[in-house]
Amino acid sequence: MPAPDGTFTSACPRNCYSTCGLRVTVSGGRLRRLEPHAGNAATPQGICLKGLSYIDRVYAPDRLLHPLARIAGTPEFRRISWDDALDTIATRLVALRRDYGPQSLLYYSSSGTKGLLNGVGDRFWRLFGGYTTTYGDLCWPAGLEATRLTLGANEHNAPWDLANARVIVLWGKNAAETNIHQMAFVDQALARGASLVVIDPRRTETAERAALHLQPRPGTDAAIALAVAHVLAARGWIDETFVAQHVHGAGAFRERVASCSPAWAAAIADVPEAQIVRLAELIGTQPPVTICAGFGMQRYTNSGQTMRAMLALLALTGNIGKPGAGWIFANLRTQVFGGEKDPLAFYPPATPDGVVRVSISTAMLGPHMLATQDPPLKMSWVERGNPIPQNPDTSAVVRAFRALDFRVVVDEVLTDTAREADIVLPAKTFFEQSDVIGAYWHDYLQLRQQVIEPPGEVKPESEIYRLLAARLGIAQAEIDAAIPAEDAIERWLEARLQASVPGITLEALREGPVRVASSGDIAFADLQFPTPSGRIEIWSDEAAARWTTDPLPGFVEPVESTRERRTPRFPLNLLTPNTKHRIHSQFGNLATMRALEPHPVIALSPADARARRITGGDMVRVFNDRGTLSVRCRIDDGLKPGCVSLHNGWWLADGGAVNVLSAARETDMGFGAAFHENLVQVERA
Ligand SMILES: Nc1nc2c(c(=O)[nH]1)N[C@H]1C(S)=C(S)[C@@H](COP(=O)(O)OP(=O)(O)OC[C@H]3O[C@@H](n4cnc5c(=O)[nH]c(N)nc54)[C@H](O)[C@@H]3O)O[C@H]1N2
Ligand SMILES: Nc1nc2c(c(=O)[nH]1)N[C@H]1C(S)=C(S)[C@@H](COP(=O)(O)OP(=O)(O)OC[C@H]3O[C@@H](n4cnc5c(=O)[nH]c(N)nc54)[C@H](O)[C@@H]3O)O[C@H]1N2
Ligand SMILES: [Mo]
């Protein structure tokens, strides 16, 4: 039920570390103001640019307010009624199930919004009789799996504990844009005399703050980590007592790194030897050390092993289980409810239950959709995702969707993926339906309350599914048991809370964020590691068995590498990081964000620009065998030569969809996507 006038607790459900607590003011049925909620101690300072634009987003002129149907044979859409839309979809579904079996339907959902209610999609498709869906994830699985294999669980210290660190390494993480609230804790540590190290090929806003900035050749961080371990051993900076009691495989790892000198790593990673030694000195002599591992270096074919090599540095120096020390990647409090689509369920099940066919790799969405047989795919339902610009190999993804007979997309705006659909259904925003959300950087559970009525004819997904289920002849009792009606949502949420986090009530969440019961601010404080050996596993038999990697962390050259031949045809590493102006492909439609970042721009180092007679502002062609983009360029004197950088999240419709250039390729662990392993050439247009 929408709220009356007043100020209400809410939380931002974007796929973002911060997952800010919010206070939302409404009057006259309209959103008026968003402020930070002081009850979330991880995000008390303020709201990011995107958060500030939510009122614009809800009332955006291009927001979809009613169902649309494609005018056959054209790229145009016309408005249709809900009855027409749902009847058409139901007729298609019935025929599809009869002619090909329910698994000829692909249900693709991604990270557009967090929430417990998202799971009702899977419940609906089970009621339908089955479906095909994806395994793996675009975001974080290589890092999650590397962490789980090494420490036994994805846990980390509370965000504010970072203030206790004496050395902070932001490794492949650009927190100043992607986790702005973490920078406040970095500042507190710096004020107490801590040292900040940033490891990133780009001189980011984060790197501007660092005392030491290493700029590795993309995909070579493991070599740096191995050389740091080499120096730690050579200088006697290993915590022998900790290692003897709590680390499995340290001896073998020390033998391995004996040959990994700083000179060896410097040649591979193209960073000065002295910087590697300095990094070792900081990690080895100034405890406590926290490594905040971002997502940058886990988007390569060698990235699970890279993350394991980085983790080994903390294990060797005893920097785990203590204040100010540890590994911050993701604490997975998003998963306190289990959930129908558990991101830890990466693995295609060995024995499919006959209802859900999990056969398509998210990283290889396009080629796998095209190759799927028995039955082949005929229809798709996409919600909370924009796979055309966001999944690797955009051209293959487009081809795969075009090869289907019928496509449905549920979204707030006419995205690239929605433009390929036959029917587009308008999606709610988080102000229009209540839900409970977890986070992956702090451990607050938060309620995002419904505070306004959905505008126009917008209906939340749960309602869409209920209406469709009725049209498929599913008994009302079965529908009610699977998917709550709008007036039953709070009861449904309350029951889920009681089952998974007893003690946390909706009433409490209405007041503000509540911490999920955990063992305190320091992860692994009891030094119990739920791995097979009960210790931190630098040596992991499980890694070897499951992923056929070396049981010890090591460095292997990425598959797509400038070093693969003497004169590479595509000599530049294309990085496609995030920007403070968007969450991936969201927010880019808003006039406010357009004013700040009006069009896609590729950054080149001065050396690479000069060699191509390119000057700032020129239009350039960025290309490889997979595709071409024509965009404006900017000269960035902080960028490592040999690298170019273009923010991901631009749409095809903006001319900047970066995944036109990327390969459909998985990471070595976890079935992630190797987005940054992407070589291109740039020429003046
Ligand atoms: N080249 C390159 N590609 C990348 C990355 C990269 O670093 N480089 N990063 C990857 C990463 S980390 C991620 S997480 C992915 C993100 O990619 P996706 O998971 O596809 O996410 P978004 O682009 O954030 O949003 C998807 C859509 O969800 C819609 N949406 C939001 N809320 C709702 C809702 O309540 N209901 C419905 N039905 N729709 C909603 C939004 O309008 C948006 O169009 O991109 C990946 N792609
Ligand atoms: N404003 C904003 N915030 C976000 C998001 C967003 O889209 N916008 N997305 C959210 C999501 S879903 C995610 S996954 C996170 C991602 O958060 P981050 O990990 O901080 O962001 P990325 O931009 O993916 O990558 C971080 C850095 O890795 C660097 N990098 C690339 N390759 C390498 C390498 O080989 N080695 C090293 N050392 N560094 C490398 C890039 O240059 C980049 O600066 O951010 C979340 N927060
Ligand atoms: Mo992500």
Strand line-up of the largest beta sheet: 5-4-17-16-15-6
Shape-level CATH architecture of the largest domain: 3-Layer(aba) Sandwich
Overall average residue pLDDT: 95
**Percentage of residues assigned to helices:** 25-40%
CATH class of the largest domain: Alpha Beta
Query: Number of helical segments?
Result: 24
What is the C-alpha radius of gyration, as a whole number of Å?
25 Å
Q: State the shape.
A: globular
Secondary-structure content class: alpha/beta
Low-confidence stretches: none
CATH topology of the largest domain: Rossmann fold
Bound molecules: ligand MGD, molybdenum atom
> What's the count of strands?
27
Largest sheet: 6 strands, mixed
Between the first and last Cα atoms, what is the distance in angstroms?
Answer: 54 Å
What is the count of structural domains? 3
Strand content: 15-25%
Question: Overview of this structure, please?
Answer:
This protein is an alpha/beta fold and 685 residues long. The protein has 3 domains: 68-129 and 336-437 and 444-515, Rossmann fold; 141-332 and 532-547, Dimethylsulfoxide Reductase, domain 2; 562-684, Barwin-like endoglucanases, CATH 2.40.40. 30% of the residues lie in helices and 18% in strands. The protein is built from 24 helices and 27 strands. The termini are far apart. The structure holds ligand MGD (2 copies) and molybdenum atom (MO). Residues 15, 139 line the site of molybdenum atom (MO). Residues 15, 110-113, 138-139, 295, 383-387, 390, 410-413, 415, 427-428, 461, 576, 583-586, 648, 658-659, 662, 675 line the site of one ligand MGD.
